Amino acid sequence: MTVNEEKPGLLSRLGRVGLPLPRTLTLEFLIMTLVLSLAVMVRLLPLRWGFYLSEFDPYFHYRAAEYITKNGFFSLASWHDMMGWYPYGRDVAKVYLPGLAMTVVFLYYLLNFIGISISLFNLCVIFPVIMAAVACVMIYLLGRYIGGREVGILAAFFLALNASYISRTSLGFFDDETIGVLGIMIVYYFFLKAVEGERKPKSTALYALGAGLTLGYVSASWGAVRY
After folding, report:
1. Domain that holds residue 22
2. Which of 16, 38, 113, 124 lies at 20 to 30 Å from 132 by C-alpha?
3. How many whole angstroms separate alpha carbon 199 and alpha carbon 4?
4. 4 belongs to a structural domain
5. What is the separation, in whole angstroms, between the first and last Cα of the chain?
6. For the segment 113-152, what is each residue's pLDDT rounded down to a tens digit?
7. Burial letters for 153-175: b for 16+ Cβ neighbours within 10 Å, e otherwise?
8. Which helix (H) or strand (E) element contains residue 80?
9. Is residue 22 domain-resident?
10. Closest to 63 (Cα-Cα) out of 77, 87, 84
Protein backbone atom coordinates (compact mmCIF):
# COMPACT_ATOMS: atom_id res chain seq x y z
CA MET A 1 0.00 0.00 0.00
CA THR A 2 1.50 3.35 -1.01
CA VAL A 3 1.54 6.36 1.27
CA ASN A 4 -1.32 8.08 -0.51
CA GLU A 5 -3.69 5.11 -0.40
CA GLU A 6 -6.16 5.74 2.39
CA LYS A 7 -6.17 2.93 4.93
CA PRO A 8 -9.61 1.73 6.01
CA GLY A 9 -10.53 3.17 9.38
CA LEU A 10 -13.53 3.97 11.53
CA LEU A 11 -14.92 6.69 9.26
CA SER A 12 -14.34 4.55 6.17
CA ARG A 13 -16.11 1.57 7.74
CA LEU A 14 -19.16 3.68 8.59
CA GLY A 15 -20.05 3.74 4.91
CA ARG A 16 -19.94 -0.05 4.79
CA VAL A 17 -22.37 -0.49 7.65
CA GLY A 18 -25.06 1.73 6.19
CA LEU A 19 -23.98 5.31 6.89
CA PRO A 20 -23.87 7.09 3.49
CA LEU A 21 -20.58 8.66 2.43
CA PRO A 22 -21.88 12.26 2.62
CA ARG A 23 -22.73 11.63 6.27
CA THR A 24 -19.24 10.34 7.03
CA LEU A 25 -17.83 13.47 5.41
CA THR A 26 -20.22 15.58 7.48
CA LEU A 27 -19.08 13.77 10.62
CA GLU A 28 -15.46 14.35 9.67
CA PHE A 29 -16.18 18.03 9.10
CA LEU A 30 -17.95 18.36 12.45
CA ILE A 31 -15.11 16.66 14.32
CA MET A 32 -12.54 18.93 12.70
CA THR A 33 -14.70 21.96 13.50
CA LEU A 34 -14.71 20.91 17.16
CA VAL A 35 -10.94 20.36 17.12
CA LEU A 36 -10.32 23.79 15.60
CA SER A 37 -12.74 25.43 18.03
CA LEU A 38 -10.91 23.76 20.92
CA ALA A 39 -7.54 24.88 19.54
CA VAL A 40 -8.71 28.48 19.28
CA MET A 41 -10.45 28.61 22.67
CA VAL A 42 -7.44 27.23 24.54
CA ARG A 43 -5.19 29.83 22.93
CA LEU A 44 -7.58 32.66 23.77
CA LEU A 45 -7.31 32.02 27.52
CA PRO A 46 -4.74 34.85 28.02
CA LEU A 47 -7.55 37.22 27.02
CA ARG A 48 -8.57 37.26 30.69
CA TRP A 49 -5.56 39.53 31.31
CA GLY A 50 -6.21 41.77 28.31
CA PHE A 51 -5.52 42.02 24.60
CA TYR A 52 -1.76 42.48 24.67
CA LEU A 53 1.49 41.20 23.23
CA SER A 54 3.47 39.06 25.65
CA GLU A 55 7.20 38.62 26.33
CA PHE A 56 9.98 40.58 24.62
CA ASP A 57 10.47 39.15 21.11
CA PRO A 58 6.84 39.74 20.06
CA TYR A 59 7.26 43.46 20.70
CA PHE A 60 10.29 43.67 18.43
CA HIS A 61 8.50 41.67 15.73
CA TYR A 62 5.62 44.13 15.99
CA ARG A 63 8.04 47.05 15.83
CA ALA A 64 9.67 45.59 12.71
CA ALA A 65 6.24 45.15 11.11
CA GLU A 66 5.33 48.73 12.00
CA TYR A 67 8.62 49.94 10.48
CA ILE A 68 7.79 48.12 7.24
CA THR A 69 4.34 49.73 7.03
CA LYS A 70 5.93 53.17 7.38
CA ASN A 71 8.97 52.68 5.15
CA GLY A 72 8.23 49.84 2.71
CA PHE A 73 8.88 46.11 2.45
CA PHE A 74 12.60 46.47 1.70
CA SER A 75 13.30 49.07 4.36
CA LEU A 76 14.65 46.50 6.84
CA ALA A 77 17.72 46.06 4.63
CA SER A 78 18.96 49.54 5.57
CA TRP A 79 17.51 49.86 9.08
CA HIS A 80 20.06 50.55 11.81
CA ASP A 81 17.98 50.44 14.97
CA MET A 82 19.35 52.82 17.59
CA MET A 83 16.74 51.81 20.17
CA GLY A 84 18.39 48.44 20.75
CA TRP A 85 21.86 47.16 21.63
CA TYR A 86 22.86 50.48 23.19
CA PRO A 87 25.06 52.40 22.56
CA TYR A 88 26.00 51.14 19.09
CA GLY A 89 22.57 50.18 17.83
CA ARG A 90 21.52 47.13 15.88
CA ASP A 91 22.07 46.37 12.20
CA VAL A 92 18.69 44.73 11.68
CA ALA A 93 19.41 43.26 8.24
CA LYS A 94 22.31 41.19 9.63
CA VAL A 95 20.63 39.74 12.69
CA TYR A 96 16.88 39.65 12.02
CA LEU A 97 14.86 37.23 9.88
CA PRO A 98 12.15 39.33 8.20
CA GLY A 99 9.67 36.61 7.23
CA LEU A 100 7.29 36.99 10.18
CA ALA A 101 7.10 40.78 10.01
CA MET A 102 6.60 40.76 6.24
CA THR A 103 3.92 38.09 6.50
CA VAL A 104 1.83 39.98 9.03
CA VAL A 105 2.22 43.24 7.08
CA PHE A 106 1.07 41.52 3.89
CA LEU A 107 -1.93 40.07 5.75
CA TYR A 108 -2.63 43.50 7.26
CA TYR A 109 -2.73 45.12 3.83
CA LEU A 110 -4.83 42.28 2.42
CA LEU A 111 -7.45 42.45 5.18
CA ASN A 112 -7.78 46.21 4.90
CA PHE A 113 -7.97 45.96 1.11
CA ILE A 114 -10.97 43.60 1.29
CA GLY A 115 -12.70 45.82 3.82
CA ILE A 116 -11.75 44.20 7.13
CA SER A 117 -10.50 47.09 9.23
CA ILE A 118 -7.99 46.00 11.87
CA SER A 119 -5.00 47.71 13.41
CA LEU A 120 -1.54 46.23 12.92
CA PHE A 121 -1.15 45.79 16.68
CA ASN A 122 -4.41 43.87 17.04
CA LEU A 123 -3.51 41.66 14.09
CA CYS A 124 -0.15 40.85 15.67
CA VAL A 125 -1.90 39.89 18.90
CA ILE A 126 -4.38 37.51 17.22
CA PHE A 127 -1.95 36.24 14.54
CA PRO A 128 -0.59 33.29 16.61
CA VAL A 129 -4.09 31.95 17.22
CA ILE A 130 -4.93 32.16 13.51
CA MET A 131 -1.74 30.37 12.51
CA ALA A 132 -2.30 27.65 15.11
CA ALA A 133 -5.72 26.92 13.61
CA VAL A 134 -4.21 26.80 10.12
CA ALA A 135 -1.49 24.46 11.40
CA CYS A 136 -4.13 22.09 12.78
CA VAL A 137 -5.74 21.96 9.35
CA MET A 138 -2.37 21.38 7.71
CA ILE A 139 -1.37 18.54 10.01
CA TYR A 140 -4.80 17.00 9.42
CA LEU A 141 -4.12 17.03 5.67
CA LEU A 142 -0.65 15.59 6.21
CA GLY A 143 -1.92 12.87 8.55
CA ARG A 144 -4.80 12.03 6.24
CA TYR A 145 -2.41 11.71 3.30
CA ILE A 146 -0.12 9.36 5.24
CA GLY A 147 -2.58 7.24 7.20
CA GLY A 148 -6.19 8.14 6.46
CA ARG A 149 -8.90 10.33 7.98
CA GLU A 150 -8.53 9.02 11.52
CA VAL A 151 -4.79 9.71 11.58
CA GLY A 152 -5.41 13.22 10.30
CA ILE A 153 -8.06 13.97 12.90
CA LEU A 154 -5.96 12.58 15.76
CA ALA A 155 -2.91 14.53 14.59
CA ALA A 156 -4.94 17.74 14.53
CA PHE A 157 -6.36 16.99 17.98
CA PHE A 158 -2.94 16.32 19.50
CA LEU A 159 -1.47 19.48 17.97
CA ALA A 160 -4.43 21.53 19.16
CA LEU A 161 -3.74 20.48 22.77
CA ASN A 162 0.04 20.17 22.65
CA ALA A 163 1.28 22.17 25.64
CA SER A 164 4.56 23.23 24.03
CA TYR A 165 2.81 24.42 20.89
CA ILE A 166 0.11 26.21 22.88
CA SER A 167 2.79 28.14 24.76
CA ARG A 168 4.21 29.43 21.46
CA THR A 169 0.90 30.19 19.73
CA SER A 170 -1.26 31.61 22.48
CA LEU A 171 -2.87 35.03 22.18
CA GLY A 172 -0.21 37.73 22.07
CA PHE A 173 2.81 35.45 21.59
CA PHE A 174 3.72 36.93 18.22
CA ASP A 175 6.88 34.97 17.51
CA ASP A 176 8.37 33.09 14.58
CA GLU A 177 7.24 29.62 15.67
CA THR A 178 3.83 30.60 14.34
CA ILE A 179 5.28 30.35 10.85
CA GLY A 180 8.02 27.78 11.45
CA VAL A 181 5.95 24.84 12.65
CA LEU A 182 3.28 25.34 10.00
CA GLY A 183 5.90 25.79 7.30
CA ILE A 184 7.66 22.54 8.16
CA MET A 185 4.37 20.66 7.82
CA ILE A 186 3.78 22.18 4.39
CA VAL A 187 7.31 21.21 3.33
CA TYR A 188 6.70 17.59 4.39
CA TYR A 189 3.36 17.50 2.60
CA PHE A 190 4.75 18.86 -0.67
CA PHE A 191 7.83 16.63 -0.44
CA LEU A 192 5.77 13.46 0.02
CA LYS A 193 3.58 14.50 -2.89
CA ALA A 194 6.67 15.10 -5.03
CA VAL A 195 8.23 11.67 -4.40
CA GLU A 196 4.97 9.80 -4.97
CA GLY A 197 5.73 6.98 -7.39
CA GLU A 198 3.03 7.31 -10.06
CA ARG A 199 2.91 11.09 -10.34
CA LYS A 200 3.49 12.84 -13.67
CA PRO A 201 6.84 14.68 -14.06
CA LYS A 202 5.19 18.10 -14.34
CA SER A 203 3.18 17.54 -11.17
CA THR A 204 6.27 16.21 -9.39
CA ALA A 205 8.23 19.31 -10.38
CA LEU A 206 5.48 21.62 -9.10
CA TYR A 207 5.29 19.88 -5.72
CA ALA A 208 9.09 19.85 -5.46
CA LEU A 209 9.15 23.55 -6.26
CA GLY A 210 6.48 24.17 -3.63
CA ALA A 211 8.52 22.26 -1.03
CA GLY A 212 11.65 24.22 -1.90
CA LEU A 213 9.96 27.62 -1.85
CA THR A 214 8.23 26.84 1.44
CA LEU A 215 11.50 25.73 3.01
CA GLY A 216 13.10 28.96 1.82
CA TYR A 217 10.23 30.92 3.37
CA VAL A 218 10.65 29.07 6.67
CA SER A 219 14.40 29.75 6.56
CA ALA A 220 13.68 33.45 6.16
CA SER A 221 11.28 33.43 9.11
CA TRP A 222 12.42 31.02 11.81
CA GLY A 223 15.89 30.98 13.34
CA ALA A 224 15.47 27.42 14.63
CA VAL A 225 15.33 26.05 11.08
CA ARG A 226 19.11 25.64 11.16
CA TYR A 227 18.71 22.88 13.75
Report:
1. 10-226
2. 113
3. 11
4. no
5. 33
6. 999 999 999 999 999 999 999 999 999 999 999 999 999 9
7. bebbbebbeeeebbebbbbbbbb
8. strand 80-81
9. yes
10. 84
